[in-house]
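Build the 3D complex.
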Amino acid sequence: MLSIKNLHASVDGHEILNGIDLDVKPGEVHAIMGPNGSGKSTLAGVLAGRAEYSVTEGRIDFLGKNLLEMAPEMRAREGLFLAFQYPVEIPGVNSSYFLRTALNEIRAHRGLDKVSALEFLKIIREKLELVEMDEKFLKRSVNEGFSGGEKKRNEILQMATLEPKLAVLDETDSGLDIDALRIVAGGVNALRSQENAFIVVTHYQRLLNYIVPDFVHVLYQGKIVKSGDKDLALHLEDFGYDWIKEQNGGQA
Amino acid sequence: MTEEMQTLNEFTNQEYKYGFVSDIESDSLPKGLNEDVIRTISAKKGEPDWLLEWRLGAYHHWLQMTEPRWANVKFAPIDYQQIVYYAAPKKSAPKSIEEIDPAILAMYNKLGIPLQEQEVLAGVAVDAVLDSVSVATTFKDKLSELGVIFCSFSEAVREHPNLVRQYLGSVVPAGDNFFAALNSAVFSDGSFAYIPKGVRCPMELSTYFRINAQFTGQFERTLIIADEGSYVSYLEGCTAPMRDENQLHAAVVELVALDHASIKYSTVQNWYPGDKEGKGGIYNFVTKRGLCKGAHAKISWTQVETGSAITWKYPGCVLQGDHSVGEFYSVALTNNYQQADTGTKMIHIGKNSSSTIVSKGISAGFGQNSYRGQVKILKSARNARNFSQCDSLLIGDKCGAHTFPYLEVKNSTAQVEHEATTSKIGEDQIFYLNQRGISTEDAVSMIVNGFCKEVFAELPMEFAVEAQKLLGVSLEGSVG
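Done.
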């Protein structure tokens, strides 16, 4: 589904990603872990097509197409979803209108008919239940005045509605209390299937208690320095990142 | 420059869609202004002597005045002797819609405002002003059953001279300002409405203005009187054909609300803004003022200004009656080299009078957008209240937003609040919407419409939809 080869990327001339290789197949959940500043969020941003990152080397194929040649909205329509670490507020834009517009763009790309406001309501009600959100939310402006937890649940709601093939969760667990964490993870787990895949970017292991990954990769200084199964995450929980830094010549 | 900014620049460069000239023969006076021109205009309209005298008085006043230059806009000197002050379609005024020149009807259809359909579907009475003479008035019968008068200004002068004489110039005096004086001298036509005591006007009254004949200045005059306890909602919408010459539009609108009467006046203005280099376009120098003459009277202005090379207007309210209410909701968009200096004046005279100002300025391209507002609380206005909110949105990095609030409070019991914000359309907002499959073009539309939401909420439903579309056309063409 996703194949990243020798990916180098920089921002303002500073190289952040330093040769990433990663393969993701349908049905898999990959966790990307690593200390602060290791390039985790940059990787998520490059996948989604953030303008401030320039890819200097390497390639990314997504469902057989060259991802790096696609505009951000095309990547989204092809089925790549990014759950933002810091979802932005868009004052005055109704949440329901926004999400229906997004859904219809993606459906149009897939050759499906647009959904009417009424049909959309049917779909969204089911998804709201999944993330334990009230219908009143639909009347509010996108993320405006939302608490941290609400913003993150909103990301999962959007993901559930847009049904992406590959979802990248960028530190979705940061700033969440235990209940919100459970809800967010529950949403993700409900969506897991043999057809879609997840890349879960996180600093802490605790999210992985709820979303159990098939693979865990440790990112350090812009490179994947260690890969393993879920036990690697547990090991990191017990011993921190220092041993990774030491093994890779960094300052502990 | 990032990719998003590039796309932004590309699609803020969409050309004006309504630029065409329809070939209706005009009966025009030669260029220039003198007493004879004014006498001819008045004679052509068969006006009574008092009105001719009023016009001449205004003209002599105007001769003593100098063109004001205090607004934050720049334009080349206007040669008032190069303007044609009267042009009318040649055929005589039609009695029914079937008699209207098919070319005129075709033009309205091109603009998407088919009169017949509107008559049947929308329940909107349309007083269509093409150049200077009204060509169609609909729904008249239905309105006249209730005693509502809605007609062209010329007709009102003929049929209801006492009302016109009583109120003309009572809100905007003939010598109020340079452009109002010019208008008072040469105004060609416009709209008139009178709502009798206790009547709630059952439909929105609507006028479509359209500048057409080449080199024709437009000097419309609108007078609306809401008698005690009545209500009326009035819509004004405009588009104009593309041309090279700058065209001066100096309209005057006067509103009078008596005791417990309420007037809602909504404008969507989309005149030709000039080309991408800033050549051509309409100069929209308008005087609009409402007088809340009676107690508990209310006047509400809502405007969406997307067109014109220069917009220079301050729809205001004189809150004379106790407990009277003035409102001003505005969206002003400037793109390319458009300039706007717009805002409102709220003059509090009556006790417990209150006013609300919500202004949203959007600047794109090289556009310059100024909010200028005056809130004046006179000594007599005990417990007066005002709330002002002025928000500016910048698209790109070559445009400008300016705010000039003037507050003058002469009564210590008054409460005056002013809030102002300036924000740039965020690349992170656009990216967020992109990441959900929405194109940059649509994303900008969505963000801009969200920014204007409070103002659009004040517009009548159909007009709000149209306003969103116009905003889209002005920014690119895809606000939905």
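Chain B is about 25% helix and 35% strand.
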